[in-house]
Amino acid sequence: MSQDEKSFLPLNPATMHILLALAGEDRHGYGIMQEVGRQSLGHYKIGPGTLYDNLQKLLDAGLVAESGCRAEVDSRRRYYRLTAFGRKVLTADLDRLEAAIREAKGRLRGPQVRRT
User: Fold this and answer.
1) pLDDT surpassing 90 at residue 60
2) pLDDT band at 2 (very low <50, low <70, confident <90, very high)
3) pTM
4) How many Å apart are CA 78 and CA 29, to the nearest integer?
5) What is the mean pLDDT of residues 94-101?
6) Given this model, what pLDDT does residue 1 score?
7) How far apart are CA 85 and CA 41, in angstroms?
8) Average pLDDT, the chain
9) 74, 79, 100 from 68: Cα distances, Å
């Protein structure tokens, strides 16, 4: 892959949640939607239109790949997996977010402005 992972940053929320949902295991579309709701404690929900539009972009960019169907479950379902490049992009964005959180926490703990 000739693209640098930083060229994808920052990830939009839908993309970040989809990649995160695929980081642990291959999933089909409905499974991705369920995992996004679970990992965000129900604060972020993704609908089918948003999911499949984003999945197509992620497939085209090489961040996600189809992993084939699992006939023992349902032969009509398409399963998706995070590629090695997708993992690099997700890791880079999580590092970016962690740095922003550290900075924000430091500022919030910093000296308080005194009122005179």
Assistant:
1) yes
2) low
3) 0.86
4) 7
5) 96
6) 43
7) 27
8) 91
9) 11, 6, 37
Tens digit of each residue's pLDDT (9 = 90 or more) over 26-37: 999 999 999 999
- Cα angle 80, 82, 86 (rounded to 5 degrees) comes to 140
**Cβ partners under 8 Å of residue 81, min gap 6:** 22, 26, 64, 65, 66, 67
Largest alpha-carbon pair distance within the chain? 72
Question: What are the structural domains of the chain?
Answer: 9-109 (1.10.10.10)
d(CA 93, CA 3): 15
Buried b / exposed e over 37-72, threshold 16 CB at 10 Å, is: beeeeeeeebeeebbeebbeebeebebbbebeeeee
Spatial separation of the C-alpha atoms in residues 89 and 95, rounded to whole Å: 10
Residue type, 34: Q
Token pair belonging to 66: 């189809």
Helices (H) and strands (E) in the chain, counts: 4, 3
